[in-house]
């Protein structure tokens, strides 16, 4: 029995445990944004809440799309988004010194955000089409590497190091899960370590280079490039176990903490809610990611297995990179904490991932019923 008879079957079949966790994370995020604005729903909490309702509704609609549609659309969709990334280079709108958006009049589109789930679907489709006995050969590596390198390179030109890393991480995750030999990843990591100094000095923009260097020695410029990290650590450390209390944070309310409502929203939360608040967010996210991994484990097709695991890992990278960034464990690369940080791009991407995961989960249930 799926549920009470008065509940429609499609509604009862939704993964409500996951959805309740997502709603809890987003609701906590609205409370944090309300506090960051000094006890007001404007300018952040109200618009964030509206976006959440819209994107959640969109995810539920995406969940109704059959898995086969995602399979057939994976590579054509990838080609379309790559074309949009080229269009950004030619016609894109510039904001904050970066050229990342296409201004379509009624909407400002950021194709690089859509590429995060698209690269996972494209790589999953490629490895599904590839015969299993070919996975450990060179022919299984260079096409997938090209699929990843092309959009990642275009995004780096915008410039957007954080998004390029996310795209690369999502694609490499699918390659690893598909069975590409581990020695190739080890060799690639060693080559990256050798090339990193050259990349830092010759490929990165000045502000990106400064972020990497300040990560290695944050106290060298505490009032300049290292200001974000220093203030973030102070905010997190001052919260203690239970925090200073709701609306009683000082780092964010006195404007010591820059971007306390976007990239560094976790520091704003930790100051007022302490370790307990941080654990709530981390555990809730891990449970959502665990659900996504389980969807992949239960899937029947190779495409669904790889896509589900890759999409769940994409959400993991969002959370892990942001938390490492605000704690000073990674350079500041502009990755927000989805569902909590103010802004629609990351929230949209996560709901696209969740919608496709629910679509695969729905297909799993149908196949089991047969």
TrEMBL record:
It catalyses: [GlcNAc-(1->4)-Mur2Ac(oyl-L-Ala-gamma-D-Glu-L-Lys-D-Ala-D-Ala)](n)-di-trans,octa-cis-undecaprenyl diphosphate + beta-D-GlcNAc-(1->4)-Mur2Ac(oyl-L-Ala-gamma-D-Glu-L-Lys-D-Ala-D-Ala)-di-trans,octa-cis-undecaprenyl diphosphate = [GlcNAc-(1->4)-Mur2Ac(oyl-L-Ala-gamma-D-Glu-L-Lys-D-Ala-D-Ala)](n+1)-di-trans,octa-cis-undecaprenyl diphosphate + di-trans,octa-cis-undecaprenyl diphosphate + H(+). It is a multi-pass membrane protein. Its main location: membrane. It is found in: Cell inner membrane; Membrane. One of its GO terms (molecular function) is lipid-linked peptidoglycan transporter activity. It comes from the Bacteria. Keywords: Cell inner membrane, Cell membrane, Cell shape, Cell wall biogenesis/degradation, Glycosyltransferase, Membrane, Peptidoglycan synthesis, Transferase, Transmembrane, Transmembrane helix. Pfam families: FTSW_RODA_SPOVE (PF01098). GO terms for cellular component: cell division site; plasma membrane. The chain crosses the membrane at residues 18-37, 43-63, 75-94, 137-155, 161-178, 185-204, 273-293, 305-333, 339-360. Its EC number is 2.4.99.28. GO terms for biological process: cell division; cell wall organization; peptidoglycan biosynthetic process; regulation of cell shape. Pathway: Cell wall biogenesis; peptidoglycan biosynthesis. InterPro entries: FtsW/RodA, RodA/MrdB. The keyword Glycosyltransferase applies. Belongs to the SEDS family. MrdB/RodA subfamily. Peptidoglycan polymerase that is essential for cell wall elongation. This is Peptidoglycan glycosyltransferase MrdB. It comes from Sphingomonas mucosissima.
